[in-house]
Design a protein that fits this description.
5-stranded mixed sheet, 3-stranded antiparallel sheet, 5 helices, about 45% helix
Length: about 210
């Protein structure tokens, strides 16, 4: 896996190359005889910049897990406060420097949905634990709550769109979680907490530990 500096450095250097080519084409365009060639060169430089931007946006943008969790926890806390929902304490045990591949907003949706699902399951004041470390697939993330857990018959259905054990719920939250994780090249598995009450969601995601 490439380091974070590899991708950022490559993007920086290529951007400078395209900008230099574009500047040279502007200088060349001052000569009427070279105007057509100058325009061709500028269009090629602009196309190279678009390709680079598309590559970074669609595939290998690097994301700090700690920062994503900060935003997700803040949103979930604000939301639960606004709807007078359960008061959740978040406990984190996250190795430093972990980064994910994908989109920041998409990963934030994953954790917001997991946190709100846990709050709904707990139904009262409770605790959500988040643990993360480097693993064989990249980054291993475990989100655990101290609610009632998941019944055996629901474990196989919990990620299905429209499935919900509560009335007036869309049943899309956990389906969104699985869709985003799998689109990013990862996996998510639901289980019950070993030795005590609570649900546990284990995510294996492409990523790395920054140096």
């Amino acid at each position: 896996m490439a380091s974070d500096l590899t991708i950022a450095g490559l993007a920086h250097d290529l951007s400078n190359v395209f900008e230099t080519i574009a500047d040279c084409s502007d200088m060349l365009s001052d000569d009427p005889k070279q105007a057509k060639l100058a325009a061709t060169i500028r269009r090629s430089a602009e196309r190279g910049s678009r390709i680079l931007s598309s590559f970074l946006e669609q595939t290998h943008a690097e994301l700090e897990l700690d920062s994503i969790l900060d935003h997700a926890i803040d949103f979930a806390t604000d939301f639960l406060g606004a709807v007078k929902g359960a008061r959740i304490e978040f406990e984190r045990n996250v190795a430093p420097g972990l980064r994910l591949l994908g989109g920041a907003a998409a990963w934030e949706r994953v954790f917001v949905n997991l946190f709100l699902n846990a709050a709904q399951a707990i139904g009262e004041d409770g605790v959500v634990e988040i643990a993360a470390s480097r693993g064989p697939a990249g980054v291993e993330i475990v989100v655990t709550d101290n609610g009632p857990g998941i019944s055996a018959q629901n474990l196989e259905r919990i990620f299905q769109p429209g499935f919900s054990t509560r009335a007036k719920r869309s049943g899309l939250g956990l389906h969104i979680v699985r869709s985003v994780v799998e689109k990013s090249g990862g996996t998510v598995v639901a289980a019950n907490r070993a030795g005590s009450k609570g649900a546990q969601f284990r995510i294996s995601a492409p990523g790395w530990a920054g140096g």
